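User: Could you go from structure to sequence for me? I need the amino acid at each position, not a summary. Structure tokens:
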């Protein structure tokens, strides 16, 4: 890949990151929707421990408008402004690498969702804590 093609790819990534939207996902246990995850920044203020479960791999992959092939992914951020921790749980077809806990903080926890298989009937993703 030439330097100019690499530069265009970086520009595309930056443009995608500029389109992130902060979404309030509530403060109690919930199953996240694909549109919430594709928004990019999820905010919550739980006063008691909360668990956020990701959608199934088939739902998440079917709803991603930018998905081209296995190995692609997207960044997602969780902000916890509450007084209790948030636990993240993958849905069916998903796995999580790294910490599943979003501690109370005014900073965001950064994750990357990597789509490891987009074949119909075999969909899979990995949530990676960065």
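Assistant: Here is the amino acid at each position, in order:
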């Amino acid at each position: 890949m030439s330097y100019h093609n690499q530069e265009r790819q970086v520009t595309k990534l930056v443009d995608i990151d500029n389109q992130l939207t902060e979404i309030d996902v509530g403060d109690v246990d919930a199953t996240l929707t694909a549109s919430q995850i594709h928004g990019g920044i999820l905010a919550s203020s739980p006063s008691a421990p909360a668990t956020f479960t990701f959608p199934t791999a088939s739902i998440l992959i079917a709803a991603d408008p930018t998905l081209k092939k296995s190995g692609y992914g997207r960044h997602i951020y969780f902000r916890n402004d509450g007084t209790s921790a948030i636990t993240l749980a993958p849905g069916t077809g998903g796995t999580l690498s790294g910490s599943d806990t979003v501690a109370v903080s005014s900073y965001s926890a950064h994750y990357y969702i990597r789509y490891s298989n987009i074949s119909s009937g075999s969909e899979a993703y990995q949530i990676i804590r960065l």
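One structural detail worth keeping in mind: Residues 1-17 have pLDDT under 50 and may be disordered.
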